[in-house]
Amino acid sequence: MKLLTCHADAHRRSLETEVLSCTARGEQHLVELAESVLFPGGGGQPADHGTIGPARVLDAEEDGERVLYVVDRPVAAGRAQVTVDWPRRFDHMQQHTAQHLITSIAAAEFGWQTVAFHLNPERSDIVLSTVPDADGIRRLEARVNAAIREARPVRPRLIDPADMEREGVRSRLLPAGHSGPLRVIEIEGYDLNTCGGTHVSNTAELQAVRFVGLDVQKGTGRLHWLAGGRVLADAREAQARSEALTRLLCRGPAEHVAVAEGLLGEVKDGRRALKALELELAEYLGRALAASEAPTLHRDTADLGVLGAIAKAAAAVRGDRLMLLTAGEPEGVFLLFGPGAGEAGPAVAEVLGGRGGGRGQRYQGKATANQRRAEAAALLG
Ligand SMILES: [Zn+2]
Question: pTM above 0.85?
Answer without folding.
Answer: no
